[in-house]
Amino acid sequence: MDAHQTLVHEIEAEMRVTADWTGRRHLAPRVRAALLTVRREAFVPAALREEAYANHPLRIGHGQTISQPFIVALMTDLLDPAPDHVVLEVGTGSGYQAAVLAALVHHVYSVEIIPALSEHAQAALAQQGVGNVTLRIGDGAAGWPEHAPYDGIIVTAAGPTVPPALVAQLRPGGRMVIPLGEPFSEQMLTLVVKDADGDLTQRDVLPVAFVPLTGG
User: Fold this and answer.
1) Is-contact 70 10, C-beta < 8 A?
2) Which of 88, 127, 139, 196 is the S-S candidate for 215 at Cβ 3.0 to 4.6 Å?
3) CA count, 13 A, side-chain hemisphere, 9
4) H-type helices in the chain, by residue range?
5) How far is the C-alpha of 129 from the C-alpha of 166, rounded, in Å?
């Protein structure tokens, strides 16, 4: 078993351990297949390639990180992605989460506030042949209204509340996965579901630690 397969086995074991909190004992088969397809080493700095399949976050510069693979897997699984979905990602970072989503949905729109990270992610995605991700440099808290509504929204940085613009851009019946909490303090991965009438329900999933959501 290679390091990539070993990592997915570790993620599945962690899913079982955390099932009482997350409500998810197993990865959806499509999500598991996507994790095995996307090469994480293509999205980490060259100096950290040997750590690419370790189940922990890695620094990617500019005060940002590539998330722990288990958290990427869990957030993706909670989104319940379908092949016809259009998804918004807030916080492109390394591009790894976008690549995983791209293997599962019709199109991914991803916003990153740090230009250098967006440029590196664009290069990595292109090198990996990922063609259904569109990137933009900007304030992720404002979303990307031109392509709304979205079937799902993933936010990869923490803020104290759910940005209203993202709520407005979520399709009725859509799901948003977002860490909520103050920077460098207690944070909670949260699942937000919008019903057919536009009303929201929120469910705490798991304590987490994310970099702060910057911008508006």
Assistant:
1) yes
2) 139
3) 6
4) 3-17, 19-22, 29-37, 69-78, 96-102, 115-127, 164-169
5) 29
DSSP state at residue 153: E
**Which sequence spans correspond to the domains of the chain?**
3-208
What is the β-pairing status of strands 86-90 and 150-155?
parallel
Which homologous superfamily does the CATH classification assign to the domain defined by 3-208?
Answer: Vaccinia Virus protein VP39 (3.40.50.150)
Tell me how far apart the alpha carbons of residues 167 and 169 are, in angstroms, rounded to a whole number. 5
How sure is the predictor about 55, in pLDDT bands with cuts at 50, 70 and 90?
A: confident
Phi, psi of 87, deg, nearest 5: -125, 145
| β-strand pairing of 64-66 with 58-61 | antiparallel
Q: Which of 67, 94, 110, 118 is catalytic?
A: 67
Tokens representing 59 are 């620094």
Structure tokens, 172:
């009725």
At residue 56, φ and ψ (nearest 5 deg) are -155, 160
pLDDT at residue 51, as a whole number? 85
pLDDT of residue 216: 54
Verify whether residue 67 is a known catalytic residue: yes
Task: Enter the pTM of the model.
Answer: 0.94
Rounded alpha-carbon distances, angstroms, from residue 135 to 4, 147, 159, 211: 26, 12, 21, 20
At 137, list the tokens: 């440099």
